[in-house]
């Protein structure tokens, strides 16, 4: 019974020693979470005063910052608690590399969509000719620029194509 009593005593001591670190880790995470929530609310107030064409871009940036702060806060909180996060960080780095490589076409279309929304080389209602297709711009999102072609057809042109090919823009009258 002495071995079992010693084990329980050691467990109690180590738990008591870990409580301040666990508490501090939760506080660190909550600080990052509060910062992310405050940033998101301020951005949403600002977004209502912006040009409607720029809102999706600012919304994407806001979501990226929010989730980035929550992730960094979680990892920092775990590190403060005493958890060895070096393997977690290495795993996130390798996972990010693998996902980036696997999704390179989608990411290139996303970045091209962001640049199109940022620089606005054409507007809704303009007639575009790109990669042999001609149509009127009806929608611009992060993946595609949608053109209304002849006979009611819809042409979804990947935004990466918009950057790798020449585009002829005829402004709406």
From TrEMBL:
* Signal peptide (from-to): none
A Pfam family assignment: MS_channel_1st
Kindly list the GO molecular function terms attached to this UniProt entry.
Answer: mechanosensitive monoatomic ion channel activity
Q: Where in the cell is it found?
A: Cell inner membrane; Cell membrane
Annotated membrane-spanning segments are 17-43, 64-90, 96-119
Q: How does it sit in the membrane?
A: Multi-pass membrane protein
Keywords (A to Z) from UniProt: Cell inner membrane, Cell membrane, Ion channel, Ion transport, Membrane, Transmembrane, Transmembrane helix, Transport
Chief location bin: membrane
Tell me where in this chain the Mechanosensitive ion channel transmembrane helices 2/3 domain is found: 65-104
- Name all Mechanosensitive ion channel MscS domain ranges: 105-167
GO cellular component annotations, sorted alphabetically? plasma membrane
Subunit: Homoheptamer.
The family classification in the record reads: Belongs to the MscS (TC 1.A.23) family.
Classification via PANTHER family: SMALL-CONDUCTANCE MECHANOSENSITIVE CHANNEL (PTHR30221:SF1)
Per its record, how is this protein called by name?
Small-conductance mechanosensitive channel
Q: Which organism is it from?
A: Acidihalobacter ferrooxydans
């Amino acid at each position: 019974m002495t071995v079992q009593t010693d084990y329980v005593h050691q467990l109690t001591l180590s738990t008591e020693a870990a409580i301040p670190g666990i508490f501090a880790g939760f506080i660190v995470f909550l600080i990052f979470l509060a910062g992310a929530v405050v940033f998101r609310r301020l951005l949403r107030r600002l977004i209502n005063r912006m040009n409607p064409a720029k809102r999706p871009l600012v919304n994407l940036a806001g979501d990226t910052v929010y989730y980035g702060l929550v992730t960094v806060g979680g990892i920092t909180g775990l590190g403060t608690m005493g958890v060895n996060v070096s393997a977690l960080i290495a795993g996130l780095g390798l996972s990010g590399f693998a996902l980036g490589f696997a999704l390179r076409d989608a990411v290139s279309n996303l970045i091209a969509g962001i640049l199109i929304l940022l620089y606005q080389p054409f507007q809704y209602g303009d007639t575009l000719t790109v990669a042999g297709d001609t149509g009127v711009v009806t929608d611009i999102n992060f993946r595609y620029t949608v053109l209304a072609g002849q006979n009611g057809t819809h042409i979804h042109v990947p935004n990466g194509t918009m950057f790798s090919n020449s585009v002829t823009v005829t402004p709406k009258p």
